[in-house]
Specification:
- Pfam families: 5-FTHF_cyc-lig.
- Its EC number is 6.3.3.2.
- Keywords: ATP-binding, Ligase, Magnesium, Metal-binding, Nucleotide-binding.
- It contains 5 helices and 11 strands.
- The strands form 3 sheets. Strands 3-2-1-6-9-10-11 form a 7-stranded mixed sheet. A two-stranded antiparallel ribbon has the order 4-5. A two-stranded antiparallel sheet has the order 7-8.
- A hairpin with a 5-residue loop joins strand 4 and strand 5.
- The longest helix is centred in the N-terminal third of the chain and has 20 residues.
- The N and C termini lie far apart (41 Å).
- The relative contact order is 0.20.
- The N terminus is likely disordered.
């Protein structure tokens, strides 16, 4: 069960919300207040999660496979990389097969862990077959993994927009974490094509993804395609 009362405006974030602060809130159909944005996001979050839940198992598997194939195209060389993925929850794309393949190709794969409420995530190493325990929302997390810092973070989206801003579950954990990780990791959002919306109404704490990978394509934040070409060419 998602806590829909989680804070959509946590303190202490470092990334500006691109050009959205220049847009007239009345033009966007908002009064500009944080509470209005929070209420709007709550409705969009529920709508998008419900839409995702309507996929049948075969559709979800096919779309997840295409996302894995697009990740291979984006990240052709993962040997020596430390990559944070996630355990699929509420119909998210299932990348556990990609995690297994990346581990076999020399990557160190991690799963995120909520160690403390309203604090940045930590990351523990994990391979298929290693022991798991139940974390927040009963999502499995590594029981004995080593704590590591990722140089690539792959995060599921509830929604996303053309500027690669990510709408998450509303707890702010990924944004809070990305704001304090140094050096800054490459950040990739993953989701289904139909989860794109016009805008997530980014706020001051929202940190955009460097790329969004869907079942239909790869979308780069402006200027980030060169970043991937430099870092990940085989």
């Amino acid at each position: 069960m998602i806590d829909e009362n989680q804070n959509d405006n946590p303190d202490g974030f470092s990334s500006p919300a691109c050009f959205m602060h220049e847009v007239d809130p009345a033009y966007m159909g908002l009064d500009g207040s944080g509470e209005t944005v929070k209420k709007w996001r709550k409705g969009e979050r529920r709508r998008l999660i419900d839409q995702r839940a309507r996929l049948n198992a075969e559709e979800r598997d096919q779309k997840s496979l295409r996302i894995r194939q697009n990740l291979d195209q984006l990240l052709p060389e993962v040997n020596g990389r430390t990559i944070s993925l996630y355990w699929p929850f509420l119909g998210e794309p299932d990348l556990r097969g990609w995690l297994t393949a990346a581990s076999a190709r020399g990557a160190t794969c991690l799963l995120p862990v909520v160690s403390e409420k309203n604090k940045p995530l930590t990351f523990r190493s994990w391979r298929i077959g290693e022991e798991l325990t139940r974390g927040v929302l009963n999502i499995p997390v590594p029981l004995h993994g080593d704590e590591r810092q990722p140089d690539i973070v792959i995060a599921p989206v509830v929604g996303f927009d053309a500027h690669c801003y990510r709408l998450g579950f509303g707890g702010g954990y990924f944004d809070r974490t990305l704001a304090v990780l140094h050096p800054k990791p490459i950040v990739i959002g993953v989701g289904f094509d139909f989860q794109q919306i016009e805008t997530i109404r980014p706020q001051g704490h929202d940190i955009p993804m460097d790329a969004i990978v869907t079942d239909t394509d790869i979308r780069f934040r402006q200027g980030c395609d060169n970043l991937f070409a430099w870092k990940f060419e085989g």
